[in-house]
């Protein structure tokens, strides 16, 4: 087995790990990045599927994501706006199909009033939340002990209003049923984007895409790091100095040992326990990791010979809390004359369709798309399902969130270093939580903490 020495070993070559590695090398430190997969990028993955370029993982850039936008500029990457011209589609209960413009769905006036009122109340609460420290809110414990669904029930009796508001957090973001996470977790999700209003504004949260794909960010960062990035290198064991003797860490893969002063675990929290630790991590860390779990969502890509919906004056944006595909968008690739729709099937609905055969699942999903766009949606020339739940080195999407009561109980310790071991990923971000922007922010902060720890006293 080969053995090398570095100042810092980083486990995971996603956006956060590679950002941390880049910042550390800028500070003159040596690094080794160990990646279990045969590619860099983590939950960013741009690939060619049957001749169509698809964003299998994350893809959108919002105007408030200044860390990501700055990185794109530094790497010389260009963006383009998501297609959004025309009218949007909403399917009500019993399949009633209505079109609309703007952010508020075409529902009954009383329901619209309830939706607007809920958004205003949520925005007011979110304004009180520090996304980096939501557990410090005076009502944090109380808000963390009530499910988001139950909280909505305390606010309105209008079921359609509750379903629509819940859809933006449960289905579109945390990808868990609204009864499975707390009101505090929901508020953190909204606070990480600046407001709840931002989450319900598709033109804001899904603003732009990157020409050539968002995976170019980690690809270009890894290219700069060169041979310091090691693929196909899952870390099996991490030996670390629990006594503070200064012996640092040793990361052990099947073929390589890296001795370093510090380690950064830049992987989803659910994978941290996949590594064996000598000695074991402290009880607190063992506990909190057991109270985090990934969501579950299928990202569906359907490519057609032409973007036929545009001919009918539709933007491609569609929503319904009653449909299998609860949201869908025009996701046509820059420069491709064909049209692509992207749709999402989340949490319990995703559970249900994965009990079917692949052929039955495809038929059910395309049928749901046809309810929005008509029979032409039944016949794509390329069809692909992004299923991150089956990815060995991710285990779900889009990010990990705490179970009921976990955020107030354990949140403050989520990123607390353990001796020479630091933690860095989008799942641990405040601003930019579960987005690439958050991954970059946390990567920079983690690198800065290590650089500061290495500074001589008094400097």
Automatic annotation (TrEMBL):
Q: What class of enzyme is it?
A: oxidoreductase
**Domain Amine oxidase: start-end pairs:** 16-450
Keyword entries, A-Z: Oxidoreductase
For the ligand (substrate), the binding residues are 344
Question: Per the record's keyword annotation, is Zinc-finger included, yes or no?
Answer: no
Q: Which Gene3D superfamilies match?
A: FAD/NAD(P)-binding domain
Is Oxidoreductase among this UniProt entry's keywords? Answer: yes
Q: InterPro entries of this UniProt entry?
A: Amino_oxidase, FAD/NAD-bd_sf, Flavin_amine_oxidase, Flavin_MAO
Might you give the EC number(s) for this enzyme? 1.4.3.10
Sequence positions that bind FAD: 16, 35-36, 235
Cofactor annotation: FAD
User: Which top-level group of life is the source organism from?
Assistant: Bacteria
Q: Which Pfam families match?
A: Amino_oxidase
GO molecular function ontology, one term from the record: putrescine oxidase activity
Q: Which family does it belong to?
A: Belongs to the flavin monoamine oxidase family.
Q: Which PANTHER family match?
A: AMINE OXIDASE, AMINE OXIDASE [FLAVIN-CONTAINING] B
Q: What is this protein called?
A: Putrescine oxidase
């Amino acid at each position: 087995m080969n053995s090398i020495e570095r100042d810092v070993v980083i486990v995971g070559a996603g956006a956060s790990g590679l950002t941390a590695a880049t910042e550390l090398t800028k500070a003159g430190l040596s690094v080794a990045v160990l990646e279990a997969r045969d590619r860099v990028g983590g939950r960013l993955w741009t690939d060619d599927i049957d001749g169509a370029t698809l964003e299998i993982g994350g893809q959108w850039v919002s105007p408030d994501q200044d860390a990501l936008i700055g990185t794109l500029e530094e790497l010389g990457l260009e963006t383009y706006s998501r297609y959004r011209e025309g009218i949007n589609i909403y399917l009500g209960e019993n399949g009633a199909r209505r079109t609309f413009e703007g952010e508020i769905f075409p529902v009954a006036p009383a329901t619209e009033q309830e939706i607007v009122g809920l958004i205003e109340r949520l925005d007011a609460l979110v304004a009180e939340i520090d996304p980096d420290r939501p557990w410090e809110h005076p009502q944090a414990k109380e808000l963390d002990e009530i499910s988001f669904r139950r909280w909505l029930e305390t606010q309105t009796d209008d079921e359609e209003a509750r379903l629509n508001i819940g859809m933006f957090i449960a289905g579109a973001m945390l990808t868990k049923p609204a009864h499975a996470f707390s009101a505090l977790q929901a508020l953190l999700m909204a606070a990480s984007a600046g407001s709840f209003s931002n989450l319900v504004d598709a033109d804001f949260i899904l603003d732009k895409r990157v020409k050539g794909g968002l995976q170019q960010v980690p690809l270009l960062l890894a290219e700069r790091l060169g041979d310091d990035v090691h693929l196909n290198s899952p870390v099996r064991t991490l030996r670390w100095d629990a006594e503070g003797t200064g012996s640092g860490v040793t990361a052990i893969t099947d073929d390589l040992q890296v001795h370093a002063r510090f380690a950064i675990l830049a992987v989803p929290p659910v994978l941290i326990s996949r590594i064996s630790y000598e000695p074991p991590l402290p009880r607190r860390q063992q506990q909190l990791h057991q109270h985090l779990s990934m969501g579950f969502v299928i990202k569906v890509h359907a490519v057609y010979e032409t973007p036929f919906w545009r001919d009918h004056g539709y933007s491609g944006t569609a929503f319904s809390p009653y449909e299998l595909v609860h949201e869908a968008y025009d996701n046509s690739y820059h420069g491709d004359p064909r049209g692509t729709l992207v749709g999402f099937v989340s949490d319990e609905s995703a559970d249900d369709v994965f009990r079917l055969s692949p052929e039955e699942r495809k038929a059910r999903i395309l049928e749901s798309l046809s309810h929005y766009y008509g029979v032409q949606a039944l016949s794509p020339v390329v069809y692909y399902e992004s299923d991150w739940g089956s990815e060995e080195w991710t285990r779900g999407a889009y990010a990990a969130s705490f179970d009921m009561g976990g955020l107030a109980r354990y949140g403050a310790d989520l990123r607390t270093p353990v001796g020479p071991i630091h933690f860095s990923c989008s799942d641990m971000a405040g601003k930019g939580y579960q987005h690439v922007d958050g991954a970059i922010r946390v990567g920079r902060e983690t690198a800065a903490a290590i650089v500061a720890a290495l500074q001589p006293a008094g400097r």
